[in-house]
Amino acid sequence: MNALAATNRNFRKAARILGIDSKIEKSLMIPFREIKVECTIPKDDGTLVSYVGFRVQHDNSRGPMKGGIRYHPEDAGSEMNTHSYNDYVEPDEVNALAQLMTWKTAVADIPYGGAKGGIGCSPKDLSFSELERLTRVFTQKIHDLIGVNTDVPAPDMGTNAQTMAWILDEYSKFHGYSPAVVTGKPIDLGGSLGRDAATGRGVVYATEALLAEHGKSVKGLTFAIQGFGNVGSWAAKLFHERGGKVVAVSDITGAVRNPNGIDIHALLKHKEATGKLADFSGADVMDSNDLLTQECDVLVPCALGGVLNRENAGDVRAKFVIEAANHPTDPDADEILSKKGVVILPDIYANAGGVTVSYFEWVQNIQGFMWDEDKVNAELKRYMTKAFHNIKGMCQSHDCNLRMGAFTLGVNRVARATLLRGWEA
Ligand SMILES: NC(=O)C1=CN([C@@H]2O[C@H](COP(=O)(O)OP(=O)(O)OC[C@H]3O[C@@H](n4cnc5c(N)ncnc54)[C@H](OP(=O)(O)O)[C@@H]3O)[C@@H](O)[C@H]2O)C=CC1
Ligand SMILES: O=C(O)CCC(=O)C(=O)O
Questions:
Q1: Where are the beta strands (DSSP E) in 276-401?
Q2: 230 labeled binding residue
Q3: Any idea where the domains of the chain sit in the sequence?
Q4: Class assignment of domain 31-179?
Q5: 31-179 with 197-350: one CATH topology?
Q6: Domain at 197-350, CATH class
Q7: What is the mean pLDDT of residues 93-113?
């Protein structure tokens, strides 16, 4: 089952639990708008290359649509470069991610809807100036459809603060200087202190809230972390600093393990210096395929979607899965893991720290006022803790697991806003 089918299935299940009318259900599921644009740039050697860019805007009943922009070959469009036009991948993944953003912003109780975008490209194969040209062309194609009160992009896989700076600059050429049109910007351009760490930090706050319910804390527990980019590296660092033992880490270059705990500060320095995890003296190389089934208390997928599936879920040995990535667990795996008694903290809550601090960034830009980092982190903790208790409330009212608790919480808030706004022309 692909990501969109899986997301629709979870949404429908939540809608049924909530007793939502089938007509409202249909209107909530269909995206507000899907944008697909051609992005052609000259490469540094003068040859032309074409990519497909997407922005799926799912829902705006609670506020401007919000969500990241991904540069990733599997998401969309990259096949266009090597196959005929008709062979390129449909943006189901982006569509699912946009819908997840709608429920996520509602779970976090921030005044946004949901969106997601992406370009089907391999950012590591493009030079800095090629990435800049591609980002500017994409922005030229979508600038009329995004905006401070319409749709506010942010970084996601394969993009970063620099990407947001280019979007801000290009957008401002058409609409005047508008820092609040993107979040996750460099601090020098109005980015928020704490946004870079926010998704990983939110993952840690969410994990602490969950563990506390089970009479446990991070200190002394073992963690396996898939992905060592923005989210994975911050989560690993903060778990390590709280006394958690990170026993295995992977990225696209490979995986390392140390049952006594990896020194994450040293691993970060090693990756920065060499660009890979292998050859790190403080851990042994392991097969990346074994990362998800590594012996540990807490498994934290922080990379791609669909990594936990029918093939490997039965072999997972963790007691807790924290979905720091979006849609890391497919429905088969969800069922298998639940039957095994593994507790899953769902993505639309677990990784909501990023978009929550994006909201703080947008608020600071609109106010023209900058918060200090302690305030950002304290507010983030308050939002994450409150959302956890709200999810638990839904679990109790509807006798459901944490995923359905989060879905019913988010879907109910969006349905209420939709009904209040009405449909009269
Ligand atoms: N950034 C954010 O604020 C938010 C991100 N997310 C989600 O978190 C996840 C990670 O995003 P983010 O950290 O921003 O992305 P990054 O691009 O910063 O990092 C992605 C990481 O995943 C690794 N990776 C890629 N493919 C594989 C693979 N097959 N096996 C193991 N590792 C792999 C990359 O390896 P390498 O380092 O070698 O490239 C990199 O370490 C995504 O699902 C994203 O949607 C969710 C909420 C907010
Ligand atoms: O910060 C944001 O607006 C987007 C975060 C995001 O893309 C996500 O939560 O998946």
A1: 284-286, 298-301, 320-322, 343-345
A2: yes
A3: 31-179, 197-350
A4: alpha beta
A5: yes
A6: alpha beta
A7: 97
